[in-house]
Amino acid sequence: MKILVTGGAGFIGSAVVRHIISNTQDCVVNLDKLTYAGNLENLVAVSDSDRYAFEQVDICDAAELKRVFSEHQPDAVMHLAAESHVDRSIDGPAEFIQTNIVGTYNLLEAARAYWNELDNKRKQAFRFHHISTDEVYGDLPHPSDVKSEAQSVKGESLSSVPNTSRFTLNSLPLFTEQTAYAPSSPYSASKASSDHLVRAWLRTYGFPTLITNCSNNYGPYHFPEKLIPLVILNALEGKPLPIYGKGDQIRDWLHVEDHARALYKVVTEGKIGETYNIGGHNEKTNLEVVQTICQILDDLYPIQHSKFNIQHYKELITHVSERPGHDRRYAIDASKIERELGWTPQETFESGIRSTVQWYLDNQDWVTNVQSGSYQTWISQQYGAE
Ligand SMILES: NC(=O)c1ccc[n+]([C@@H]2O[C@H](COP(=O)([O-])OP(=O)(O)OC[C@H]3O[C@@H](n4cnc5c(N)ncnc54)[C@H](O)[C@@H]3O)[C@@H](O)[C@H]2O)c1
């Protein structure tokens, strides 16, 4: 089987490509524009394989997409290419609309034109797997809502909580595949739009699509603008560890390699037209995550207090103003993919976060290249990119 992976040089896409090349006999065509978030160094472990090919292409370029489908003749598409950082989407939404919505539309159309010309057997077997996020569902009731309900005689404090009348701490709702979409940020709204396009292409054209919505990922090769790598790297440099507001926002963390395994299961065994939620059963507040990283660093890389004038990394934690529209809680009900496809996460948060911190300690060259931007120079030397 040959799989066209878009965004294969990014954080999750590169984990998918490494997983497929290392653990299966399938071929991969990695189609990636190589924005600031795309780094081919993430793929050095597999890029020499004769089952791997790379195409530097923008998914907004319809002619190039047509060429890639025609030259490589894939059996499936796994679509991960996207602008993915919520903070950047607030500062400048235009790229998010362009890549996540218009780019997905272009890819659907290029893939559909190609699929229409396939012989019957290959047409039946073809799959278009769209990779999305749990952020499309908006946010969920937070444990502090339960406390405020208990304190509120009339329960008015819950009036702004969607789809919910009564719940207890132990029965706080989770996102299921039936949860209504209610995105809050330009990023999640653009991803929600792309999910709707994919669903419409299935319904209108019978195009064989699948969608997955996954919770927050963490793990190696994560670009240091996101919370976990940012905290690890700032701590190592004795810089402040920024936390939005009180840090009580809850996310459901999944190790990126568990996500990659789930995605391969879905593209190879999932049922056409279905949506699968993917999550790690690891609800943590941002503050808990940052404190855990600080404890692991205290253990693995004790602070040089003479240099930074502090005893423990947690002293670097700094609360900053809340992000506009910040969702308070995400949590996934992943029972459908567990029941129907037999996928469960292999990493616990405790083991996964420790190995992630260790990875950043062991891969200072990767970090230095990313922070200095010199991975982009490496790309132009390697591929003659502009
Ligand atoms: N990171 C998470 O926690 C998370 C969770 C759930 C779902 N997702 C989704 O998974 C996908 C991958 O996320 P990620 O964290 O790896 O993102 P990332 O930002 O690390 O990588 C995105 C990749 O897409 C490429 N790209 C961007 N614009 C492109 C374009 N116009 N044409 C071709 N390539 C382009 C980039 O060069 C990069 O390699 C995204 O669709 C994201 O919405 C992410």
From TrEMBL:
<protein>
    <submittedName>
        <fullName>dTDP-glucose 4,6-dehydratase</fullName>
    </submittedName>
</protein>
<dbReference type="InterPro" id="IPR001509">
    <property type="entry name" value="Epimerase_deHydtase"/>
</dbReference>
<comment type="pathway">
    <text>Bacterial outer membrane biogenesis; LPS O-antigen biosynthesis.</text>
</comment>
<dbReference type="GO" id="GO:0009225">
    <property type="term" value="P:nucleotide-sugar metabolic process"/>
</dbReference>
<dbReference type="InterPro" id="IPR036291">
    <property type="entry name" value="NAD(P)-bd_dom_sf"/>
</dbReference>
<dbReference type="InterPro" id="IPR005888">
    <property type="entry name" value="dTDP_Gluc_deHydtase"/>
</dbReference>
<dbReference type="Pfam" id="PF01370">
    <property type="entry name" value="Epimerase"/>
</dbReference>
<feature type="domain" description="NAD-dependent epimerase/dehydratase">
    <location>
        <begin position="3"/>
        <end position="279"/>
    </location>
</feature>
<comment type="similarity">
    <text>Belongs to the NAD(P)-dependent epimerase/dehydratase family.</text>
</comment>
<dbReference type="GO" id="GO:0008460">
    <property type="term" value="F:dTDP-glucose 4,6-dehydratase activity"/>
</dbReference>
